[in-house]
Design brief:
With 226 residues, this protein is an all-alpha fold. The protein has helices spanning 2-16, 19-28, 42-49, 51-75, 91-108, 121-131, 133-150, 153-173, 182-199, 201-209. The radius of gyration is 18 Å and the shape is globular.
Length: 226
C-alpha cells in the first residue's frame, strides 16, 4: 500500500499550500489571518486585498484539488493495487476521492501555517470538478444564483456545497437519470458537504445574527474589519 500512502501524502501537501498567506506576506508584508475575518481563504483575500488577488487565490485553491484528483492520483496509480471494494466505482475513482479529500484536509488544516487554513470551499470545488463535472456545474450555478440574490459569499458557498449531493439525488430519483455508482457518489458528496458546512459554522452563526459581511461591503479600506 505504498502507492496509497504516497498519493494521500502528496495530495495533503498540495492542499496545504497556503496560497492566501503566501500572497499576503509576499506582496503586502502581513499575514492575511490578521486582517478582515481572520480566515486564510479566498473570500477574505477579496475583502482585504481586492478582487485580483482574491480571484488568483480562489483559482489556485481550486487548482490544488484538480491537480490532486487528476494528476497525482493518476501519476502514482497502480492498476494492480487490490481494493476489492464493494461499490460499482472503479478503483481509480476511489483513489480520486481519497486524494481530493486529502487536499481539502490540507487546505483547512495546512501543515505550513500552524494547521490553521481556509474553509475548503474552493478546494472542495476543485475536487468535485475533477471527479463529477456535471454536478459541479449545477453547484456552481446555485452558488452564483444565491450570491447574486443575497451577496453573501459564505451563504453561496454553503448552498453550492449542499446542492451537489441534492442534485445527484434529484437527478436519479425524480428525473430518473442513470448515474453511475449513485449510492457511492451521493454518500461521498454528502460527506464533503458536511465537512464544508462544518468549516463555515462561524459564518452560519453570523448569518443568523445578521452580522455576516456582504461582498458589496468588501473593500481595501475595511481591511482591519473583523
Amino acid at each position: 500500500m505504498v502507492n496509497m500512502a504516497i498519493v494521500i501524502l502528496l495530495s495533503y501537501i498540495v492542499g496545504s499550500i497556503p496560497t492566501s498567506i503566501i500572497i499576503s506576506k509576499w506582496m503586502h508584508g502581513f499575514d492575511i489571518r490578521t486582517k478582515g475575518s481572520g480566515n486564510a481563504g479566498g473570500t477574505n483575500v477579496f475583502r482585504v486585498l481586492g478582487w485580483k488577488s482574491g480571484l488568483f487565490v480562489t483559482l489556485f485553491d481550486i487548482g490544488k484539488a484538480v491537480l490532486a484528483t487528476t494528476v497525482i492520483a493518476r501519476l502514482f496509480w497502480d492498476p494492480t493495487l487490490p481494493f476489492y471494494n464493494k461499490t460499482p466505482f472503479d478503483d481509480f475513482t476511489i483513489i480520486q476521492m481519497i486524494c481530493g479529500g486529502a487536499a481539502i484536509v490540507g487546505h483547512i488544516w495546512t501543515m505550513f501555517a500552524g494547521f490553521k487554513g481556509g474553509k475548503g470551499i474552493a478546494t472542495g470545488a476543485g475536487m468535485l470538478l475533477g471527479i463529477a463535472p456535471t454536478e459541479f456545474a449545477i453547484s456552481t450555478g446555485i452558488f452564483l444564483i444565491v450570491f447574486m440574490a443575497w451577496k453573501y459569499v459564505s451563504l453561496s458557498s454553503i448552498s453550492g456545497a449542499v446542492a451537489f449531493p441534492l442534485s445527484i439525488f434529484v437527478r436519479h430519483n425524480i428525473f430518473g437519470d442513470e448515474i453511475h455508482s449513485y449510492r457511492t457518489l451521493i454518500a461521498f458528496s454528502f460527506s464533503v458537504a458536511v465537512l464544508l458546512v462544518y468549516s463555515h459554522r462561524q459564518n452560519i452563526k453570523r448569518l443568523l445574527e445578521g452580522t455576516e459581511n456582504k461582498i458589496s461591503s468588501f473593500s481595501r479600506s475595511k481591511s482591519v474589519e473583523s
